[in-house]
Specification:
There is one protein chain. The chain is mainly α. The chain has one domain. Helix content is about 75%, strand content about 0%. It contains ten helices and no strands. Helix 1 packs antiparallel against helix 10. The chain is elongated, with a radius of gyration of 29 Å. About 0% of the residues have low confidence.
């Protein structure tokens, strides 16, 4: 028995699993994009409610808004100022309270993280198929981005809260060592998605997860594989060699009599 044959069969099977999840992830993205496009076509105003463009708001926050507003007031007369104030009050009164708008925006962001991390969970399971892996990472990557989004939303405008959170996290010690260094990328990706959702920039999370999923699948399909997969292949090779030696011993202990075939 050739010990390489079972290993080759294992590699072929694993690549078939990866091709299947690649097609599954692609169909998922197309379906989500179609549903989102339909919702925008039916309800155009929903775009303003989605957590998008947060990075731009942070980058240009306070840059020239105060000066532009001061110039507008200085160049306007009393009637124009009164109209501006009246229109602003009318718009504000028609909108939900600020606390409710913030809560809804965070809810949308958290739901978006679940939708984005679901394919990441599929990729993680397919990459570690037929091998021993940490199942807690799979569930952690699904929930962690929503938690991170809530934390970032809470502390992003308060330096005092940010330092308080850093002190609290420093007091909690995590002693869990990952069995495979590639698993660290899934944790980092989930944290990145959570931060993007927390600052209302889901578009960044979309690009991050789509690139991460396809890159992870292609690297694992055409690369040398993960440490867990290498351990499985080594185990298959040892079992194959052991089976070959057992068959060889049985053949020597029970030689075939040429006359018995006559």
């Amino acid at each position: 028995m050739d010990p390489e044959t079972p290993i080759a069969a294992h590699i072929t099977k694993h690549r078939k699993i990866l091709r299947g999840v690649l097609a599954k992830v692609t169909v998922y993205y197309v379906a989500v994009a179609a549903v989102l496009a339909t919702m925008i076509a039916v309800f155009p105003g929903i775009v303003n409610e989605l957590p998008l463009g947060g990075v731009g708001e942070i980058a240009y926050y306070g840059a020239s808004n105060a000066l532009d507003l001061e110039e507008a007031y200085l160049s306007a007369d009393d009637e124009e100022i009164e109209e501006i104030v009246t229109e602003t009050r009318r718009v504000q009164s028609a909108l939900p309270p600020p606390w409710l708008r913030g809560a809804l925006a965070l809810l949308y962001a958290m739901l978006a993280t679940l939708l984005l991390m679901l394919p990441v969970s599929w990729v993680y399971k397919s990459i570690h198929a037929d091998s021993v892996y940490d199942h807690s990472i799979d569930t952690t990557t699904l929930v962690l981005p929503a938690v991170v989004a809530g934390v970032v939303t809470m502390v992003q405008h308060s330096l005092a809260l940010a330092f308080s959170l850093a002190g609290i996290v420093a007091g909690v010690r995590f002693r869990r060592a990952l069995s495979d260094t590639f698993d660290t990328l899934f944790i980092l990706a989930s944290i990145g998605v959570g931060i993007s959702a927390g600052i209302k920039s889901i578009e960044i999370a979309v690009v991050l997860t789509v690139f991460f999923n396809y890159a992870a699948i292609l690297v694992c399909a055409f690369g040398d594989g993960l440490e867990s997969q290498y351990a499985v292949r080594q185990k298959i090779a040892r079992q194959s060699k052991k089976a070959a030696r057992t068959q060889e011993k049985q053949a020597k202990s029970n030689p075939v009599d040429p006359m018995s075939s006559l």
